[in-house]
Amino acid sequence: MKIGLFGGTFDPVHNGHTQIARAFADELALDTVIFLPAGDPYHKNAPRTPAEHRLAMTQLAVRDDARFAVSDCDIVRSGATYTVDTVQIFRQQFPQAQLWWLMGMDSLLQLHTWKNWQMLVRQTRIAVAARGESSLSAVPSELRNWLGGALENGTLHLLQTPLYPVSSSEIRGRLKSGPAADEWLDAAVADYIRCHGLYRG
Ligand code: ATP
């Protein structure tokens, strides 16, 4: 069994997320992609929409692809939730599975700042979608040794799909100043946002 784990704030979940998840699933022949909305911040200077809304929107956004699922694993854990621990939980639950952690290139360039990232890359394969201006040529020195080896042995996979130039922050900015952002959102997610008055500033 091949499982893709897709962590994010999903504030809100947008078409870029679902498009790259679909591309990951197709290209890596994943049986499932599990979206993992992040929990509420444990320190106050990182405001974000309450987890119940981000979870509900993510559940709406994944409903059309039978390979997609959503887990509240990172929401129900208290305190700081680290990716390395999340992967460990899925490793215990699916000991025989091939696990892939899915991310955009902007996240890959930050990977060396994640807790125990060296352990994380031993526990899971990593698949990366191109994003904006972020490029492998900007990879920090801390990641270079691992990156070369991982590309060679296939534990790091760069997705062959076009760019999907959209971000949650851009959508939040739009919604705050008034105009809709429907072209970047699943219709049911856009309705949910309207219905709950989210992102109005
Ligand atoms: P924000 O703008 O608030 O930072 P975001 O759009 O980056 O949000 P996240 O939920 O933080 O959304 O992203 C989760 C993961 O999906 C990250 O690894 C991010 O790099 C990746 N990702 C999000 N949008 C895209 C996109 N359009 N193309 C490629 N990767 C993306």
From TrEMBL:
Keywords: ATP-binding, NAD, Nucleotide-binding, Nucleotidyltransferase, Pyridine nucleotide biosynthesis, Transferase
Alphabetical list of Gene3D superfamilies matching this protein: HUPs
HAMAP family named in the record: NaMN_adenylyltr
SUPFAM superfamilies referenced in this protein's UniProt entry, alphabetically: Nucleotidylyl transferase
Keyword Transport on entry: no
Family: Belongs to the NadD family.
Pathway this chain belongs to: Cofactor biosynthesis; NAD(+) biosynthesis; deamido-NAD(+) from nicotinate D-ribonucleotide: step 1/1
NCBIfam families for this protein: cyt_tran_rel (TIGR00125), nicotinate (nicotinamide) nucleotide adenylyltransferase (TIGR00482), PRK00071.1-3 (NF000840)
Name the UniProt record assigns to this protein: Probable nicotinate-nucleotide adenylyltransferase
